Automatic annotation (TrEMBL):
MF (Gene Ontology): carbohydrate derivative binding; glucose-6-phosphate isomerase activity; monosaccharide binding
Keywords attached to this entry: Cytoplasm, Gluconeogenesis, Glycolysis, Isomerase
PROSITE patterns, A to Z: P_GLUCOSE_ISOMERASE_3
Species whose genome carries this gene: Desulfofervidus auxilii
CDD domains recorded: SIS_PGI_1, SIS_PGI_2
Single biological process term from Gene Ontology: glycolytic process
Active-site residues, as the UniProt record annotates them: 284 (proton donor), 305, 419
The protein's enzyme class: isomerase
Official protein name in the record: Glucose-6-phosphate isomerase
GO cellular component terms, semicolon-separated: cytosol
EC number: 5.3.1.9
Domain of life of the source: Bacteria
């Protein structure tokens, strides 16, 4: 069972930088108020992501298609960006071999390689053609609105390639709004297979919908177990003393204390994608109205050698959350060699498992001794069930923190203007006013 340990966040353990150990009792009324609001929003459909673990009308179709597709495709290319790709990418990285795409088909159990096209850099777009055979590639086009410029540009590019070399009807699946949007209209007119994103589920909260389930199911991941883990966490969160609410409340309390840099620090290479996914979730949901935390991802032990100096000795504006794992799955031993060299000899006979856990604990103790707030999520292992728990926990924590802050955690007004300006610059006729704004923009140029 996933555990949230906040021992090193209370003042008894880290001194004046911490929060009072009775913070839970002090804030019980606020927690109850937030819990009531969340339950009301779940009931009225505002928080649609909370229903995803329990309501999946397309689940059997997803599993059947995934089973039928095994050994059929050499590659899957996901055309999506932000919430349309980060969740599936995180699940894939967490549950598959670290060099999955380099394994042969037999070692991948017949499942295809996967590539995420989440940028419009022309080198990336052109470069993918050098490593995949279009005829043997399945494309998943993912955009809830069906209007995402980056996804649509990728769609147009690869659709042309498939028309020349393959069969678009067999090779393209569209995941979008069930009723509206250009991708839905194109799917109807062209006959593309589709899956739906529930209208009341925002992109960054959509990983447990078809947005995340379709790509990972096609890679052989147990999506039933993923959803079961989310269901288990939802059950735990029926009372107010749960990991999601406590994580949210603590982050909020530290935000009030000026700790506006929130670091997610997994000590498992497999979970780096989860930190990436959380970073978008936290940033787009909570960065509002001139306030909000800045989420930062770090990787243990790699970033002990790049960021830890700042965390230990820099401005006291950070709260750190480790993700630790009890069972890494493999035991890898360090050989005994150079016994006459003490700087090497002490390592021999230990495992890399012991080493990474020692480094995490050493970092935790050092931060605690320095009075730097740090908590941790503890995972028994990394499997689909545990990942489902963690995903639901962080999603619920995010909306909870938004409600503590008094903001809407579902919208993203800060990115909409840039989207409109992009469409204007690319010639979208409905954005002439935005184009005029750009053309008439006056600024002082300063260049070197």
């Amino acid at each position: 069972m996933l555990v949230y340990d906040y021992s090193n966040l209370i003042e008894e353990n880290i001194g004046k930088e911490g929060i009072s150990s009775n913070f839970l009792e002090t804030n019980k009324g606020l927690l109850q108020e937030i819990d009531n609001e969340i339950k009301a929003k779940r009931q009225d459909g505002s928080f649609g992501f909370m229903e995803l673990p329990f309501h999946q009308p397309e689940l059997n179709e997803i599993k059947k298609m995934a089973s039928d597709a095994r050994k059929k495709w050499e590659n899957i290319i996901v055309l999506g960006i932000g919430g349309s790709s980060l969740g599936a990418m995180a699940i894939h990285q967490a549950l598959h071999h670290p060099f999955y795409n380099l394994l042969n088909a037999e070692k991948r159990n017949g499942y295809p390689r996967i590539f995420f096209m989440d940028n419009v850099d022309p080198e990336l777009v052109q470069g993918i053609l050098d490593v995949v055979d279009i005829k043997h590639t399945l494309f998943l086009v993912i955009s809830k609105s069906g209007k995402t410029a980056e996804t649509l540009s990728h769609f147009l590019f690869f659709l042309e390639k498939v028309r020349k070399q393959g069969d678009p009807i067999k090779q393209i699946i569209i995941i979008t709004d069930p009723e509206k949007g250009p991708l839905r209209e194109i799917a109807r007119s062209e006959g593309f297979l589709t899956f739906s994103v529930p209208p009341n589920v925002g992109g960054r909260y959509s990983v447990l919908s078809a947005v995340g389930l379709v790509p990972v199911a096609f890679l052989g991941i147990d999506i039933d177990a993923l959803l079961a883990g989310a269901q288990a966490m939802a059950k735990r969160c029926e009372t107010i003393e749960n990991p999601a609410y406590l994580f949210a409340l603590i982050q909020f309390l530290f935000l009030q204390k000026g700790k506006n840099i929130h670091v997610m620090f997994p000590y498992a290479q497999a979970l780096l994608g989860m930190a990436d996914w959380w970073r978008q979730l936290w940033a787009e949901s909570l960065g509002k109205e001139g306030n909000g935390p800045t989420p930062v991802k770090a990787l243990g032990v790699t970033d002990q050698h790049s960021q830890l100096q700042l965390y230990m000795d820099g401005p006291r504006d950070k709260i750190i959350t480790f993700i630790t794992v009890k069972d890494y799955g493999n035991d890898v031993f360090i050989p005994h060699s150079f016994k006459d060299f003490p700087d090497l000899a002490y390592l021999g006979g230990h495992t890399f498992n012991e080493l990474i856990q020692a480094e995490q604990l050493a970092t935790e103790v050092a931060l605690t001794k320095a009075g730097c707030p740090n908590g941790k999520f503890v995972l028994d292992n990394i499997d689909a069930f545990t990942l489902g728990e963690f995903i639901y926990c962080l999603e619920l924590a995010t909306v909870s923190c938004g409600l503590f802050m008094g903001i809407n955690p579902l919208n993203q007004p800060g990115v909409e203007l840039g989207k409109r300006y992009t469409r204007a610059l690319m010639g979208e006729p409905h954005f002439q006013e935005e184009k005029r704004e750009i053309e008439t923009l006056k600024c002082v140029h300063a260049k070197v």
